Amino acid sequence: MYSAVEGARVPIRMWTDPQSVDEAAMRQLHNVANLPWVHGLAVMPDVHYGKGATVGSVIAMRDAVSPAAVGVDIGCGMSAVRTSLYAKDLPDDLGALRRRIEAAVPVGFGMHRTPVNPARVHGVGGWDAFWKSFDELHPGVQSMRDRARAQIGSLGGGNHFIEVCLEQGGDSGRVWLMLHSGSRGIGNELAKRHMSIARDLPHNADLPDPDLAVFVAGTPEMAAYRRDLFWAQDYAARNRATMVSLVKQALADTVPGVRFDDAISCHHNYVAEEHYDGVDLLVTRKGAIRAGSGDLGIIPGSMGTGSYIVRGLGNESSFESASHGAGRRMSRNKAKKMFTAADLAEQTSGVECRKDSGVVDEIPAAYKDIESVIAAQTDLVSVVAHLKQVVCVKG
What we know:
It contains 10 helices and 17 strands. The chain has helices at residues 23-33, 67-70, 94-104, 127-132, 145-151, 184-199, 220-254, 332-338, 341-347, 370-375; strands spanning 3-5, 12-14, 38-48, 55-61, 64-65, 77-86, 161-168, 174-181, 215-216, 264-267, 269-276, 279-286, 288-290, 296-300, 307-312, 321-323, 381-394. It is globular and about 60 Å long.
């Protein structure tokens, strides 16, 4: 159940102890809750301070949307696929499997030398129409078409990952594939351009935080942002679907005969048009997944802990939402200062992954406890499967 924090235009519904939220994040939440367009605000148990708006927040607005609240990785999210394999079927050398995945999917700033053939991407059509609509995007990104094509099916860096996981409990030892990525360079560029436009609009002049600048319905700026936003969300989904195809092939090349279930996929940085309290709303989930009744979702932990496949319970108090992960408990800079590569190696023992200083900021100790995060939202989701990674690919 949630705690309601008063003192703003709308109550802040929090699925965590308000006293556990740091001052900067609470200030962000109050600023959002005081915006004149806000209908409601829900806060997930993985909440922490973020650029623009608080990570782990669900912002429901009437006739308005804040591009900075969505963030620069438009459409970032997760995909997961259950396989027919069990732990005993995996090769003894998981390092070789990791290297095969890394060879198939560019990471960091990398991209494919030639775009991935869309025919390889199961269940996703409309590619010609999708790329034709690129011409309608913001003029400032038109030079990025070739790069955007080459980055479809690439991971990126930061907290993005590809994992091979083993199910715990129920179907113990069943192998899953899981990945986390978004809209890559094109989504970032679109977001930054629209955030800049929003900050200069007169109706945003007196906001307590310029990062909360909004577009309002019925304006050309709103129409342009919605067009680019929904295109970038589609790009992110296609990017993940392409990576799923490439990772499935990498596993099939390693273990011939493997079969795959349909993929589970969900955004966690996005905007959706939804209806609550008898009102049509624009719902921004910044580090939150949709958890409508029966919706399957993915809530990952850190690279050394585990993840959960969940089913939504349709709780309208949270605008049918749930957390998007464990959530950071310290900044990347603080983690780099506090921990070493040796600490990372210790905390990721048993996981085939990078253990060097370049990913120390992703150390498990920099994240909240995923078990506690799941326990705090039993009225939002039910657990379908608990997974533990044995291979983790990072950018």
